[in-house]
Fold each of these.
Amino acid sequence: MANERDSLRAPKGTNDILPPGSFRWEALVRLAQDTFEQAGYAPVETPTFEDTALFERGVGETSEVVTKQMYSFEDLGGRSLTLRPEGTAGVVRAVIEHNLHRGALPVKLHYSSWMFRQERPQRGRYRQFFQVGIEAMGTDSPSVDAEVIEVGDRFLRSAGSTPTLLLNSIGHPAADCRAGYNQVLVDFLRAHEGDLAPEDGKRIDTNPLRTFDSKEEATIAVMASAPVITDHLCGACAEHFEDVKAHLDALGVVYTLEPRLVRGLDYYTRTAFEFVWSGLGSQNAMGGGGRYDGLAEMIGGDPLPGIGFALGVDRILLALNDAGIEGGPKVDVYIVAQGDETAAEALVLATRLRRAGIGADLDHTMRGMKGQMKEAARSGARFAAILGSDELAAGEITLRDLTSGDQERVPATDLESKVRAG
RNA sequence: GCGGCCGUAGCUCAGCCUGGUUAGAGCACCCGGUUGUGGUCCGGGAUGUCGCCGGUUCAAAUCCGGUCGGUCGCCCCA
């Protein structure tokens, strides 16, 4: 029933990110951005919505994401637009549109953006979710594959998580490569159709590769002896994969070969990888990525090979649990005033500290001193700066170390230096 | 989109099976003990459309139906 309260609730599958958790959320995003920029990736922002056709062509018209999960709408000009379900298509579109690929290659970009998919929500799976990711476009050199993977792996580890890196190559669409393998796999599945779990039989026609993902015991038993793609790659793709692995070995990046790893979006070629963590339940992927050498042409642009990854911030935080990266308030000093007489001065003092680059906060509600001290403790500040009438008259401040409980009266003019000295 | 479980204070939950006085606890919050001092202790206080709509009943947080939301699994994926 229509109720005013209903509109006072975040839409299904969306979340408010509130303090104190929001500090940690922000810290994680910053760590990602710093890590990516330190490796030469420049920030990029693209529109939250794009032409629907961009995703249909890029992500794939038959993919689950495009057929069932897109938030599409028509604007007043009759254009069909879609809230982006993933980040790569828009970034590649922007690069081609603005001819970034006519300059120095590779074009290396990173993004941190909201994505939208209309799925049944669950822990770690929301309709609006935040991803951080990087894209390196303009070369199919195996060394850039290794660079991208290492950057993602290092980011996740420096955040405090312990992901398992799954690695595979899914070749390219040609008959002597993935298309050929696909036929081999279909033949195998047909030969064993009777042994497959009933609900998996239909995948032979729809998406044979996904049969590897089945949770059905009967199917798992059959698939144990199924042909794997890495045995059917063409010479160039096989060599590329060997080079990627050699680079990763040289970097000391630990990976697990997973010939059954298939990714959900149609544009992937060759290198495919996923960072998984068992504690996430059925949403076990913290993120993943791969090479997309055909994407630029699929969306109508010049040929432009590329590789990238996207990591889900919510899932990383879930995997971190309470460990790992920390974030918190940045108030160094909490000003404690003593009634009307000093309240106005307290704001002046707080502002003076802020202008000097020192985090400062104060009470605005005329609490008693006890209440203000409580606020001081809660604020996370290292110091309480007590400004009573005595201090005001003497031109001094009582500076209390909230950790040790020690306090001393100092000239008001020395406050900044005393705080900085810690 | 499909199936299971759940929905009581800001949070974690008890009460529901066996309808019946002002719906409770812990934590958090506010005030006081200490009109110049937090984190401990003691005392006091505020806070609920019992998710929502409807049905059964003299009476519903409690039983029934629907609905919304969450959660777990499926599908898929970050």
Amino acid sequence: MPVPAAPDKKANFFQDVYEVVKLIPPGRVSSYGAIAAYLGSKGSARMVGWALIASHAQHGVPAHRVVNRNGLLTGRQHYDAPNAMQEYLEQEGVEVKDGQVVEFKRLFWDPAKELL
DNA sequence: TGTTTGACTTATG
DNA sequence: ACATAAGCCAAAC
């Protein structure tokens, strides 16, 4: 599996992803597809994932608030500990059960609609 | 330079 | 409901 080295270059797309993710309110979660759609690249949900992998090098990017459309914490394996992502979410008041956000539908934060 | 691989999503059988 | 395919695009090899 390829791993992004360091997005020190332009990576405007990456930077845009970071800004949107930073706007996600605590206790809320969003999805890759929603962010990708908000950025214009509707079918580029994967790129959002790439950006979040690279977000390790950034600061203030709550990547743990971004999950897939099922509310599943698919990215938890990219954290130091397998339950780190879940812990962060629970600290913010998000219920997580078996790596999946409970009431995801209710906590979902869509930038295209909330951010107008 | 070309192939492979995803922190995805939607469509189809 | 589960399995597979396809679209997407940048990075690693």
